[in-house]
Every structure is written in structure tokens, then in C-alpha cells.
Amino acid sequence: MPYLKDKGQSPKPMDCRILTAALHLFVHHGYHNVSVHDIQRKAKASIGSIYNHFDSKEGIARALYYHLLDEFEEMLADVIAEELTNIDRCNRIISLLFKYTESRHEIVEFMLYEKHRRFIPGAPPICGVAPFSTMQDIVKWGIENGEICQGSECVITSCVFGGAIRMIHLRLDGLIDRPLPELYDAFIAHIWQGLSRKDQGSLLRAVSG
């Protein structure tokens, strides 16, 4: 499978080869410009093998989408398991997203850039899936623990992670020419101005003024 973290499995199982080939082709050529035969040739598989594992191109895309959702959820579970404050958990997630934009850009582009419901009927919007709910939970815990200022969980989650996703889009579009990890420290400093609890008083004064 296409993994965020290299599992080091070799040789790759057939379903892994198919999904990895599909990921590359979907990202570089667009879902609608790729055929099952293109995937078959890229994966060095037979048509029979393709249909033995997946019933259609849509089936391949669906399996890829939900596999990568699991990858992102596993990444978040690993972060939650670390002994970190909730602000540091948010920072760690952003750090990993920036890192994977450089090292696993096809995965990040497919998950955070594609409009999946155009070619996977019934797929939930990316902001409505489990990983994004988990990110909002981390913000909620930060508010409850007094680390993050009071406010709408949805709004604050959008402030924390929405900017990071926009940075990823700009990088993928070539409008940011530096690796995102090089911009991480400055980005994090700007996010938490006004969002951390210790800055809430100055934030409220600025708003009321």
C-alpha cells in the first residue's frame, strides 16, 4: 500500500502495487484521464489481477481513499499517544503534514487536494472524516484544559489547521518554493498569537477596541 511511513514490505503484494500505481497516475494525470489499463500497465499486473482485487476504477479509487484515511488516523493516534500538551499535539500534526508534503507528496496531494466526491459517489467531504474530527477533538481538549482560548471548536480548529492546509496547497501548486518544514517555526508562531490561553486577554482587548 502507499504508506505515510515506509513499512519496508518487499516484494509488494499485488493490491499494494495496484493502489500505488493508481495513486501516482491519479495525482499526475487526474482520475478521469486514467484507465484501468493504465493502472494495469503501471502496476505490471494483469487485467485479471486488477478485477480480482477491485471491481472497477472507482473501486480502486475508493479503496485508496479509505486506506489513506486510515493512514492519517494512525498518524493522529501516534501523536495523541505521545505525552504532549494539546497545543504541542496540534503543532506536531502540522509538522508531520509539512514533512509528508515533501516526502510523501502524492499521498498528501490525493488526500488534501482532490475533490473526492467527484469520482467516489457517497464519499464524505474530507473535512467530515474521522481524522478531521480527531483534530477538532484535540482542539476541544485544549480549550477544556485551559491551554487554548475559549471559542467555537470549529472556528479555532479552522484557524489552527486550515492555514496549514492552505500552505500545503500553495506548496503543491509551486507558489511556495521552499520546503514547508523550513517555514514551520514562523508559521506556528503566527498561529498561536491570540489563540493560546495566555494571549486571550490581549486578544479580547483588541477585538473590543
Report on the structure:
This protein has helices at residues 14-29, 36-43, 47-53, 57-81, 86-103, 105-112, 130-144, 153-172, 184-191, 200-208. It is built from ten helices and no strands. Helix 1 (14-29) packs across helix 2 and helix 7 crosses helix 8 (153-172). The model is unreliable at 200-209 (pLDDT under 50). The termini are far apart. It is mostly helical.
Strand content: under 5%
**Structural class category:** mainly alpha
Q: What's the β-strand tally?
A: 0
Mean pLDDT figure: 88
Estimate the helix proportion, in percent.
55-70%
Radius of gyration: 19 Å
Instruction: State the distance separating the first and last CA atoms.
Output: 54 Å
Q: Quick recap of the structure?
A:
The protein is 64% helix and 0% strand. The protein has helices at residues 14-29, 36-43, 47-53, 57-81, 86-103, 105-112, 130-144, 153-172, 184-191, 200-208. The termini are far apart.
Topology diagram in text:
Elements: H1 14-29, H2 36-43, H3 47-53, H4 57-81, H5 86-103, H6 105-112, H7 130-144, H8 153-172, H9 184-191, H10 200-208
Helix pairs in contact: 1-2, 1-4, 1-6, 4-7, 5-6, 5-7, 5-8, 6-8, 7-8
